[in-house]
Amino acid sequence: MKQYKARILPEHIRAVNVGATVPLILEHQIYGEALGEVHIVDEHHGIISGAGFVVGQKLSAGSFVTGGNKHDVREVSVTTSPKFPECEILEVLE
After folding, report:
1. Which of 46, 31, 18, 35 is nearest to 77 (CA)?
2. What distance in Å separates the CA atoms of residue 25 and residue 70, rounded to the nearest whole number?
3. For residue 59, which of 46, 70, 49 has the smallest C-alpha distance?
4. Taking the domains of the chain in order of start, what are their residue ranges?
5. For 3-32, b where at least 16 C-beta lie within 10 A, e where not — what string?
6. How does pLDDT run across 26-46, given as a tens digit for each residue?
7. 70-89: per-residue pLDDT in tens?
8. How many other CB atoms are there within 10 angstroms of residue 67's CB atom?
9. Cα angle: 16, vertex 29, 3; to 5 degrees
10. CB half-sphere exposure, 87, CA atoms < 13 A
11. Taking Cα atoms as reference points, which of 56, 60, 68, 73 lies closest to residue 28?
12. How far is residue 34 from each of residues 30, 37, 60, 68, 85, measured CA to CA in Å?
């Protein structure tokens, strides 16, 4: 299993659940199989644990608004149509 650094939220949205681990799924299919996990490391980034991903692959975070620009991230999806194009896999970690 490889690890990848990823941007999961754009600059104007902040994760409130830093330190949490959430499932990585395909296209927000919450009842589908998990492709891996995302450990939220700061308000905008996560570390993906999984296999078969590529740098530049687009992501979309499924979250609940907790107030203002703060979101509780519940899942991260691999997607072909992200709302925020900057949310993607940034690099493979060794």
Report:
1. 35
2. 22
3. 46
4. 2-93
5. bbebbbbbeebbbbbeeeebbbbeeeeeee
6. 999 989 899 999 999 999 999
7. 999 999 999 999 999 999 99
8. 7
9. 60
10. 24
11. 60
12. 9, 8, 14, 29, 22
Sole residue written with tokens 């999961």: 8
Our measurement of the distance from residue 73's CA atom to the centroid of its chain's CA atoms, rounded to an integer in Å, reads 8
Separation between Cα atoms, residue 28 and residue 41, nearest integer Å: 21
Is 51 in contact with 92 (CB distance < 8 Å)?
A: no
User: Mean pLDDT for the chain?
Assistant: 96
Q: What is the pTM of this model?
A: 0.93
CA angle at 42 for the pair 74 and 64, rounded to the nearest 5°: 25
Structure tokens at 45: 């980034």
